[in-house]
Amino acid sequence: MDASAIYLHGVAIRGARHDAIFVTTTYGKTLALDAHSGTVLWEYTPPGYQALAGTRQITNSTPVADPTRQSIYAASPDGYIQKLVVGDGHVVWRTAITKLPLREKMDSPLKFFRGRVIAVTAGYIGDRPPYQGHVVALDGGTGKLLAVWNSLCSQRAGLLQPDSCPQSDSAIWGRAGAVIDPRSGDIFVATGNADWNGTTDWGDAVIELDAGATEMRGNYAPANTDELNAEDLDLGSTSPVLLGSDLVAQGGKDGKIRLLSRKAMAGTTPHKGHELQIVATPSGTDLFTQPAEWQHDGQTWMFAADNGGTAAWELENGQLRKKWKNGTSGTSPFEADGLLFVYAREGGLNVYEAASGKRVATLPCGAGHWNSPIVLQGEIILPEGNANAHATSGVLDIWSLPGGHRVAAVAQGFTP
């Protein structure tokens, strides 16, 4: 499970109440597990699983639940999204979001907002053409394909046969996938290497779409977008981070985090450059993980981790100011109760005081890739493993806190 888990508290599964974890595996199996015992409550296996298991055709996607907590939505590497009933895992509908799943991969978490499932596509290691990154909106009730916004050949609506567009790539592969503004429903994505022409091709760009994924509301590209494309320095190696009413942070493979203004991005006129600020990633190297935003004492903080370090910034007068940094690697951070949980790809889940950066615990676990933890309801949940190893089994770690205790109160007393 080379992604993250989701958690539903006190849901009915097979006639009993459970605190349940839901995960999607490398080859598209989706499992429901009891959060306290790890017992498998049900398992969904997509059609064609046996033909895909062990191959390069994988997914790193995280499922999503709808607000009723009666259904979850999950991706599989055959190119489909499926709606599954929480109670027993049976399929309500399946909808394809690509016409070429052998080339177009689902890397990122699914999202659900105002009755719509939002999904994005990317490509596989090696960027073998043809493929395009696109944003898809599905009706959560029926599975109907409502809209597609293509980051290449964007003048064309609907799912493309990838070889029908003269341009390839522009993957949408950040670890948060599409980022939804909870007030407006607007959708933010960042794209990877490809042609950028400011009209129909939007490689190495940040894009704001309306809630229906039907029209562009804003856009940004670095002034050196051609250089990024030529040197394989994807701007979209991570997803945008919304840091308040007007601010967006965007990391990249070039070791930079750019602070942008939504007002300056607004409209369909192409916008290049004019960043509010550029800061280095924690170690000045590629950022493949998703920064975390934290509201603390009335201030906005951001945390990020890369292969060489972990760092924290606070927004002061519209600028990111470094608060602390260390040399310990990490995947996407998760803040809970004033603690920051950061998984090291080589193994170990590090726990820091979020405000000071002081390490208070390291929980033992194996190595991984893009996996990231979630922490809630007294459980710390982390998948291990690397989808690129093409394994068909893996490990899910669950640490339990003593019942009723706040996370911060027992920072050094985790029970595996």
From TrEMBL:
UniProt cross-references to Gene3D superfamilies, sorted A to Z: YVTN repeat-like/Quinoprotein amine dehydrogenase
InterPro entries assigned: PQQ_rpt_dom, Quinoprotein_ADH-like_sf, WD40/YVTN_repeat-like_dom_sf
Pfam families found in the cross-reference section: PQQ_2
Lineage: superkingdom: Bacteria
Domain Pyrrolo-quinoline quinone repeat residues, every copy: 15-146
Record-linked PANTHER family: CELL SURFACE PROTEIN (PTHR34512), OUTER MEMBRANE PROTEIN ASSEMBLY FACTOR BAMB (PTHR34512:SF30)
Protein name listed in UniProt: PQQ-binding-like beta-propeller repeat protein
Annotated source species: Rhodanobacter geophilus
